[in-house]
Amino acid sequence: MALTLYELGGLDDRRYSLYSWRARYALAHKGLTPEYKPVRISDKSAIAFSRQDKVPILIDGEQVVQDSWRIAQHLEAKPGASLFGGEIGQSLSRFFNSWVDRTIVPRLAPMIALDVTGIQDEEDARHLRGTMEKAFGKPLEELAASRDKDIVGFRRLLDPARAQLRAQPFISGSQPAYADYILFSPLQWARIVSPFPILEESDALFTWRERMLDLHGGLGRTTPARV
Ligand SMILES: N[C@@H](CCC(=O)N[C@@H](CS)C(=O)NCC(=O)O)C(=O)O
């Protein structure tokens, strides 16, 4: 069955949507290769069929699946390696998904939102600036100006993940699974959109991210880091 994944595309065809990286890795985990279709953040006509304005969207034959968590659940029903490792793993992964989305992403986004506009054309950059400045109540420049200070607390937030990696090579255990893709996605987003060093090279999470980039034939490296 033909699979298509809609995701945000920027200048030089950079695929920068945070949540789409979860879907990309989940598909690869199942041994599936979709056709990838870029969507402009300022023009959602390509995904009007979904009657909402967010990506990722997976088209699987006749089915339209929207939202990265629902895509992961949809893919889990397919044959191949498990993304969750059973009901308990799925439940804990959902908790981890909420922790990353509600705790990590909102602290990361203001630090690098200004940089995102640097990988977009004028129209997309204007759109993103509008939504981000409304969400955070400050100009993007002002948000970026305090990041040398903000990064300290942000890195500390990631301590539970570091503790996990002291015991095992992946968040999910000896092998990567969906929980790894959940945390990888914002850190991959940062790598793609911003030259700001979110992770120090000496950090165990930096090394883990390198391992994650190598997975599935170097899938994460298909979009270059912003330098
Ligand atoms: N909870 C959703 C979040 C989806 C989401 O916010 N997607 C972003 C890109 S990563 C988006 O489509 N933004 C476009 C916009 O806000 O206009 C998921 O996990 O898929």
Question: Can you characterise this structure?
Answer:
α1 packs parallel to α2 (68-76) and α1 (18-29) crosses α8 (178-193). This protein has helices at residues 18-29, 68-76, 87-116, 122-136, 140-145, 147-157, 159-167, 178-193, 204-218; strands spanning 3-8, 35-39, 57-60, 63-66. β1, α1 and β2 form a beta-alpha-beta unit. A four-stranded mixed β-sheet has the order 2-1-3-4, with helices on one face. Helix content is 54%, strand content 8%. The structure holds glutathione. Glutathione (GSH) binds next to α1 and α2.
Blueprint of the fold:
Layout: E1 3-8, H1 18-29, E2 35-39, E3 57-60, E4 63-66, H2 68-76, H3 87-116, H4 122-136, H5 140-145, H6 147-157, H7 159-167, H8 178-193, H9 204-218
Parallel strand pairs: 1-2
Antiparallel strand pairs: 1-3, 3-4
This protein binds glutathione (GSH).
Brief summary:
This protein is α+β, with helices and mostly antiparallel strands and 227 residues long. 54% of the residues lie in helices and 8% in strands. It is globular, with a radius of gyration of 17 Å.
Radius of gyration: 17 Å
Helix content: 40-55%
Shape call:
globular
Task: Note the gap between the termini.
Answer: 38 Å
Question: Largest sheet, described in full?
Answer: 4 strands, mixed
Number of strands: 4
**Ligand species:** glutathione
- What letter string, H or E per element, gives the SSE order? EHEEEHHHHHHHH
